[in-house]
Amino acid sequence: MSQLDLLNIVHRPRRLRKSAAIRNLVQEKSLTVNDLVYPLFVCPGTNVVEEVASMPGSFRYSIDKAVKECQELWDLGIQCIDLFGIPEQKTEDGSESYNEKGIIQEALRAIKAKVPDLCIMTDVALDPFTPFGHDGLVRDGIILNDETVEVLCKMAISHANAGADFVSPSDMMDGRIGAIRESLDDAGFSDIGILSYAAKYASSFYGPFRDALHSAPQFGDKTTYQMNPGNTDEAMKEIELDIMEGADIVMVKPGLAYLDIVWRTKERFDVPVAIYHVSGEYSMVKAAADRGWIDEKRVMMESLLCMKRAGGDLIFTYYAKEAAKLLR
Ligand SMILES: NCC(=O)CCC(=O)O
Ligand SMILES: [Mg+2]
Questions:
Q1: In which residues is Mg(2+) bound (predicted)?
Q2: pLDDT digits over 216-251, tens only?
Protein backbone atom coordinates (compact mmCIF):
# COMPACT_ATOMS: atom_id res chain seq x y z
CA MET A 1 0.00 0.00 0.00
CA SER A 2 1.47 3.32 -0.97
CA GLN A 3 2.00 5.91 1.72
CA LEU A 4 -0.57 8.73 1.67
CA ASP A 5 0.82 11.96 0.24
CA LEU A 6 0.25 14.72 2.78
CA LEU A 7 -1.52 17.75 1.41
CA ASN A 8 0.76 20.72 0.93
CA ILE A 9 -1.51 23.27 2.64
CA VAL A 10 -0.60 26.07 5.03
CA HIS A 11 -4.07 26.75 6.35
CA ARG A 12 -5.67 24.07 8.45
CA PRO A 13 -8.71 25.60 10.18
CA ARG A 14 -9.19 22.37 12.09
CA ARG A 15 -6.21 23.35 14.31
CA LEU A 16 -8.60 25.75 16.05
CA ARG A 17 -11.10 22.96 16.68
CA LYS A 18 -8.65 20.41 18.05
CA SER A 19 -9.75 20.48 21.71
CA ALA A 20 -12.54 21.88 23.79
CA ALA A 21 -10.13 24.35 25.38
CA ILE A 22 -9.04 25.75 22.03
CA ARG A 23 -12.59 25.83 20.71
CA ASN A 24 -13.69 27.76 23.78
CA LEU A 25 -10.79 30.21 23.46
CA VAL A 26 -11.69 31.17 19.92
CA GLN A 27 -15.47 31.16 20.28
CA GLU A 28 -16.75 34.48 18.91
CA LYS A 29 -20.19 34.78 20.47
CA SER A 30 -21.61 33.34 23.66
CA LEU A 31 -25.01 33.25 25.23
CA THR A 32 -25.33 34.51 28.79
CA VAL A 33 -28.20 34.66 31.23
CA ASN A 34 -28.09 38.46 30.89
CA ASP A 35 -29.44 38.09 27.36
CA LEU A 36 -32.63 36.33 28.38
CA VAL A 37 -36.12 37.78 28.80
CA TYR A 38 -38.90 35.53 30.04
CA PRO A 39 -42.43 36.14 28.68
CA LEU A 40 -44.86 35.63 31.56
CA PHE A 41 -48.60 35.01 31.16
CA VAL A 42 -50.76 36.28 34.01
CA CYS A 43 -54.40 35.26 34.43
CA PRO A 44 -57.24 36.06 36.87
CA GLY A 45 -57.80 34.02 40.02
CA THR A 46 -55.59 32.78 42.82
CA ASN A 47 -53.47 29.69 43.11
CA VAL A 48 -53.68 29.07 39.35
CA VAL A 49 -50.81 27.42 37.49
CA GLU A 50 -52.24 26.16 34.25
CA GLU A 51 -50.15 24.56 31.54
CA VAL A 52 -50.74 25.87 28.02
CA ALA A 53 -51.79 22.81 26.03
CA SER A 54 -49.86 23.76 22.89
CA MET A 55 -46.80 24.94 24.86
CA PRO A 56 -45.73 22.14 27.22
CA GLY A 57 -43.70 23.55 30.08
CA SER A 58 -45.26 27.03 29.77
CA PHE A 59 -47.97 28.18 32.15
CA ARG A 60 -50.58 30.80 32.88
CA TYR A 61 -50.12 32.06 36.42
CA SER A 62 -52.48 33.90 38.72
CA ILE A 63 -50.78 36.92 40.26
CA ASP A 64 -49.85 35.19 43.54
CA LYS A 65 -48.16 32.38 41.59
CA ALA A 66 -46.58 34.80 39.13
CA VAL A 67 -44.84 36.52 42.03
CA LYS A 68 -43.37 33.17 43.14
CA GLU A 69 -42.32 32.44 39.59
CA CYS A 70 -40.56 35.80 39.37
CA GLN A 71 -38.64 35.09 42.55
CA GLU A 72 -37.51 31.82 41.01
CA LEU A 73 -36.50 33.53 37.76
CA TRP A 74 -34.53 36.12 39.70
CA ASP A 75 -32.77 33.40 41.68
CA LEU A 76 -31.79 31.77 38.39
CA GLY A 77 -30.21 35.04 37.27
CA ILE A 78 -32.95 36.08 34.85
CA GLN A 79 -33.25 39.84 35.18
CA CYS A 80 -36.14 40.69 32.92
CA ILE A 81 -39.68 39.53 32.18
CA ASP A 82 -42.23 40.64 29.62
CA LEU A 83 -45.72 40.61 31.13
CA PHE A 84 -48.77 39.49 29.16
CA GLY A 85 -52.20 39.67 30.78
CA ILE A 86 -55.43 37.76 30.30
CA PRO A 87 -58.16 40.17 31.45
CA GLU A 88 -61.31 39.39 33.42
CA GLN A 89 -63.35 40.72 30.54
CA LYS A 90 -62.93 41.65 26.90
CA THR A 91 -64.71 44.78 25.65
CA GLU A 92 -64.95 46.25 22.17
CA ASP A 93 -63.30 49.47 23.35
CA GLY A 94 -60.44 47.57 25.01
CA SER A 95 -60.83 49.73 28.10
CA GLU A 96 -59.80 46.94 30.47
CA SER A 97 -56.28 47.40 29.06
CA TYR A 98 -55.84 50.69 30.93
CA ASN A 99 -57.84 49.84 34.04
CA GLU A 100 -55.60 50.88 36.95
CA LYS A 101 -56.77 47.67 38.66
CA GLY A 102 -56.38 45.53 35.53
CA ILE A 103 -54.48 42.28 35.36
CA ILE A 104 -51.13 43.67 34.17
CA GLN A 105 -51.32 46.66 36.50
CA GLU A 106 -52.03 44.51 39.57
CA ALA A 107 -49.38 41.99 38.57
CA LEU A 108 -46.83 44.79 38.26
CA ARG A 109 -47.54 46.05 41.77
CA ALA A 110 -47.43 42.58 43.29
CA ILE A 111 -44.19 41.55 41.56
CA LYS A 112 -42.46 44.88 42.25
CA ALA A 113 -43.34 44.53 45.94
CA LYS A 114 -41.54 41.17 46.19
CA VAL A 115 -38.86 41.24 43.48
CA PRO A 116 -38.13 44.96 43.14
CA ASP A 117 -34.98 44.71 41.05
CA LEU A 118 -36.46 42.50 38.36
CA CYS A 119 -36.85 44.58 35.18
CA ILE A 120 -40.49 44.36 34.10
CA MET A 121 -41.51 45.07 30.54
CA THR A 122 -45.19 45.07 29.70
CA ASP A 123 -46.96 44.13 26.51
CA VAL A 124 -48.85 47.06 25.06
CA ALA A 125 -51.44 45.85 22.53
CA LEU A 126 -55.15 45.21 22.50
CA ASP A 127 -55.44 41.63 21.26
CA PRO A 128 -56.28 40.01 24.63
CA PHE A 129 -58.53 42.93 25.62
CA THR A 130 -61.16 42.96 22.88
CA PRO A 131 -63.37 40.11 21.65
CA PHE A 132 -61.83 40.48 18.17
CA GLY A 133 -58.33 39.27 19.00
CA HIS A 134 -56.81 42.03 16.88
CA ASP A 135 -54.08 44.36 18.07
CA GLY A 136 -56.24 47.41 17.46
CA LEU A 137 -59.77 48.69 17.75
CA VAL A 138 -62.10 47.45 15.05
CA ARG A 139 -64.78 49.24 13.07
CA ASP A 140 -66.60 47.60 10.14
CA GLY A 141 -63.93 44.93 9.94
CA ILE A 142 -61.11 47.50 9.70
CA ILE A 143 -58.31 47.67 12.27
CA LEU A 144 -58.22 51.36 13.18
CA ASN A 145 -54.82 53.01 13.52
CA ASP A 146 -55.05 56.42 15.17
CA GLU A 147 -57.96 55.52 17.47
CA THR A 148 -55.97 52.51 18.63
CA VAL A 149 -52.88 54.59 19.34
CA GLU A 150 -54.91 56.75 21.70
CA VAL A 151 -55.86 53.68 23.75
CA LEU A 152 -52.28 52.34 23.68
CA CYS A 153 -51.04 55.62 25.19
CA LYS A 154 -53.47 55.23 28.10
CA MET A 155 -52.40 51.64 28.52
CA ALA A 156 -48.71 52.59 28.58
CA ILE A 157 -49.29 55.29 31.19
CA SER A 158 -51.26 52.91 33.40
CA HIS A 159 -48.39 50.42 33.21
CA ALA A 160 -45.89 53.13 34.12
CA ASN A 161 -48.13 54.17 37.03
CA ALA A 162 -48.09 50.58 38.28
CA GLY A 163 -44.30 50.30 38.14
CA ALA A 164 -43.31 49.08 34.67
CA ASP A 165 -39.66 49.68 33.79
CA PHE A 166 -40.25 49.43 30.06
CA VAL A 167 -43.34 49.28 27.89
CA SER A 168 -43.25 47.08 24.80
CA PRO A 169 -45.81 48.00 22.15
CA SER A 170 -46.35 44.90 20.02
CA ASP A 171 -49.26 46.14 17.94
CA MET A 172 -47.61 47.51 14.75
CA MET A 173 -49.89 50.56 14.48
CA ASP A 174 -48.17 53.46 12.68
CA GLY A 175 -46.92 56.32 14.83
CA ARG A 176 -47.52 54.69 18.18
CA ILE A 177 -43.95 54.92 19.42
CA GLY A 178 -43.87 58.70 19.07
CA ALA A 179 -47.30 59.07 20.62
CA ILE A 180 -46.47 56.78 23.56
CA ARG A 181 -43.13 58.54 24.13
CA GLU A 182 -44.87 61.90 24.25
CA SER A 183 -47.64 60.62 26.54
CA LEU A 184 -45.16 59.06 28.95
CA ASP A 185 -43.07 62.23 29.02
CA ASP A 186 -46.12 64.42 29.59
CA ALA A 187 -47.17 62.18 32.48
CA GLY A 188 -43.74 62.53 34.11
CA PHE A 189 -42.40 59.16 32.96
CA SER A 190 -39.45 60.29 30.87
CA ASP A 191 -37.31 57.55 32.45
CA ILE A 192 -39.58 54.69 31.35
CA GLY A 193 -38.14 53.03 28.26
CA ILE A 194 -39.80 51.76 25.11
CA LEU A 195 -38.97 48.45 23.51
CA SER A 196 -40.68 48.57 20.15
CA TYR A 197 -41.83 45.49 18.31
CA ALA A 198 -40.62 47.35 15.25
CA ALA A 199 -40.37 44.61 12.63
CA LYS A 200 -43.11 42.18 13.59
CA TYR A 201 -44.08 39.84 10.80
CA ALA A 202 -47.53 38.39 10.12
CA SER A 203 -46.32 34.93 11.07
CA SER A 204 -47.98 31.57 11.51
CA PHE A 205 -45.41 30.79 14.19
CA TYR A 206 -47.57 32.68 16.74
CA GLY A 207 -50.30 30.03 16.90
CA PRO A 208 -49.61 28.56 20.37
CA PHE A 209 -49.27 32.03 21.94
CA ARG A 210 -52.81 32.87 20.88
CA ASP A 211 -53.91 29.69 22.58
CA ALA A 212 -52.02 30.76 25.73
CA LEU A 213 -53.62 34.20 25.81
CA HIS A 214 -57.04 33.27 24.40
CA SER A 215 -56.40 35.95 21.79
CA ALA A 216 -56.77 34.34 18.36
CA PRO A 217 -58.20 36.77 15.79
CA GLN A 218 -61.92 36.20 15.40
CA PHE A 219 -61.95 37.28 11.78
CA GLY A 220 -59.38 37.69 9.04
CA ASP A 221 -55.68 37.82 9.82
CA LYS A 222 -53.11 40.41 10.85
CA THR A 223 -51.64 41.15 7.44
CA THR A 224 -52.94 44.74 7.30
CA TYR A 225 -50.65 45.72 10.16
CA GLN A 226 -47.98 43.07 10.65
CA MET A 227 -45.31 42.69 7.98
CA ASN A 228 -45.12 40.49 4.90
CA PRO A 229 -42.57 37.67 5.45
CA GLY A 230 -41.19 38.37 1.98
CA ASN A 231 -39.90 41.83 2.87
CA THR A 232 -36.66 43.17 4.32
CA ASP A 233 -36.44 46.80 3.09
CA GLU A 234 -39.77 47.40 4.77
CA ALA A 235 -38.30 46.18 8.07
CA MET A 236 -35.50 48.74 7.80
CA LYS A 237 -38.07 51.46 7.25
CA GLU A 238 -40.21 50.34 10.22
CA ILE A 239 -37.16 50.20 12.47
CA GLU A 240 -35.82 53.57 11.36
CA LEU A 241 -39.21 55.19 12.01
CA ASP A 242 -39.47 53.69 15.48
CA ILE A 243 -35.94 54.80 16.40
CA MET A 244 -36.74 58.31 15.17
CA GLU A 245 -39.95 58.28 17.22
CA GLY A 246 -38.04 57.36 20.38
CA ALA A 247 -37.71 53.59 20.68
CA ASP A 248 -34.83 52.64 23.00
CA ILE A 249 -34.71 49.01 21.88
CA VAL A 250 -36.15 47.53 18.69
CA MET A 251 -37.39 44.01 18.18
CA VAL A 252 -37.43 41.65 15.24
CA LYS A 253 -40.04 38.89 15.48
CA PRO A 254 -40.18 35.88 15.02
CA GLY A 255 -36.64 34.62 15.66
CA LEU A 256 -34.92 31.83 13.76
CA ALA A 257 -36.56 32.31 10.38
CA TYR A 258 -35.84 36.05 10.51
CA LEU A 259 -32.17 36.22 11.50
CA ASP A 260 -31.30 37.95 8.22
CA ILE A 261 -33.47 40.85 9.39
CA VAL A 262 -31.66 40.91 12.73
CA TRP A 263 -28.29 40.95 11.02
CA ARG A 264 -29.29 43.74 8.67
CA THR A 265 -30.73 45.76 11.56
CA LYS A 266 -27.55 45.39 13.59
CA GLU A 267 -25.36 46.40 10.65
CA ARG A 268 -27.39 49.50 10.04
CA PHE A 269 -28.53 50.88 13.39
CA ASP A 270 -26.74 51.52 16.66
CA VAL A 271 -29.45 50.43 19.08
CA PRO A 272 -29.94 47.24 21.07
CA VAL A 273 -31.86 44.65 19.08
CA ALA A 274 -34.26 42.18 20.67
CA ILE A 275 -35.33 38.89 19.10
CA TYR A 276 -38.50 37.02 20.02
CA HIS A 277 -38.07 33.25 19.92
CA VAL A 278 -41.81 32.80 19.51
CA SER A 279 -44.27 30.20 20.69
CA GLY A 280 -44.35 28.16 17.47
CA GLU A 281 -40.57 27.86 17.48
CA TYR A 282 -40.68 26.71 21.09
CA SER A 283 -43.49 24.22 20.55
CA MET A 284 -41.86 22.69 17.47
CA VAL A 285 -38.79 21.84 19.52
CA LYS A 286 -40.95 20.50 22.35
CA ALA A 287 -42.97 18.31 19.99
CA ALA A 288 -39.99 16.87 18.16
CA ALA A 289 -38.16 16.24 21.43
CA ASP A 290 -41.24 14.53 22.84
CA ARG A 291 -41.06 12.08 19.95
CA GLY A 292 -37.40 11.49 20.58
CA TRP A 293 -36.46 13.00 17.24
CA ILE A 294 -34.14 15.72 18.49
CA ASP A 295 -32.13 16.53 21.59
CA GLU A 296 -34.20 19.29 23.19
CA LYS A 297 -31.49 20.89 25.31
CA ARG A 298 -28.97 21.02 22.47
CA VAL A 299 -31.45 22.35 19.95
CA MET A 300 -32.64 24.96 22.43
CA MET A 301 -29.13 26.19 23.26
CA GLU A 302 -28.06 26.17 19.61
CA SER A 303 -31.13 28.19 18.62
CA LEU A 304 -30.47 30.81 21.29
CA LEU A 305 -26.76 31.01 20.50
CA CYS A 306 -27.53 31.52 16.80
CA MET A 307 -29.83 34.40 17.70
CA LYS A 308 -26.98 35.96 19.62
CA ARG A 309 -24.57 35.40 16.74
CA ALA A 310 -26.94 37.06 14.29
CA GLY A 311 -26.89 40.21 16.42
CA GLY A 312 -29.58 39.77 19.03
CA ASP A 313 -28.78 41.60 22.26
CA LEU A 314 -31.91 40.47 24.12
CA ILE A 315 -33.69 37.20 23.48
CA PHE A 316 -37.29 36.74 24.52
CA THR A 317 -37.82 33.02 24.99
CA TYR A 318 -40.12 30.60 26.77
CA TYR A 319 -36.94 28.56 27.28
CA ALA A 320 -35.36 31.26 29.47
CA LYS A 321 -35.56 29.21 32.67
CA GLU A 322 -34.23 26.01 31.14
CA ALA A 323 -31.43 27.90 29.41
CA ALA A 324 -30.54 29.79 32.59
CA LYS A 325 -30.19 26.50 34.45
CA LEU A 326 -27.77 25.18 31.82
CA LEU A 327 -25.78 28.42 31.78
CA ARG A 328 -25.07 28.35 35.50
N1 LIG B 1 -47.11 40.11 21.10
C2 LIG B 1 -46.52 38.95 21.57
C3 LIG B 1 -46.70 37.82 20.64
O4 LIG B 1 -47.39 37.92 19.65
C5 LIG B 1 -45.96 36.55 20.97
C6 LIG B 1 -45.99 35.57 19.87
C7 LIG B 1 -45.48 34.20 20.21
O8 LIG B 1 -44.77 33.93 21.19
O9 LIG B 1 -45.80 33.33 19.39
MG1 LIG C 1 -44.23 50.69 12.64
A1: 238
A2: 999 999 999 999 999 999 999 999 999 999 999 999
pTM: 0.96
> In this structure, which topology does domain 31-327 adopt according to CATH?
TIM Barrel (3.20.20)
Strand partners, 142: 139
Cα 72 to Cα 86: distance, rounded to the nearest angstrom: 22
- Measured by CA distance, the residue closest to atom 4 of ligand 1 is 206
> How far from the centroid of its chain's Cα atoms is residue 280's Cα?
13
Longest dimension (CA), the chain: 85
Write down the domain spans for the chain: 31-327
Q: Residues 216, 211, 196, CA angle at the centre, nearest 5°?
A: 70
Return the amino acid letter for 290.
Answer: D
Residue 186 contacts by C-beta under 8 Å, 6 or more apart in sequence? none
Annotated active-site residue 200? The verdict is yes
Q: What are the phi and psi torsion angles at 323 (to 5°)? A: -65, -40
Q: Which of 40, 197, 206 has most ligand 1 atoms within 8 Å of CB, for mutation?
A: 206
For the chain, how many residues are written? 328
pLDDT band at 2 (very low <50, low <70, confident <90, very high): low
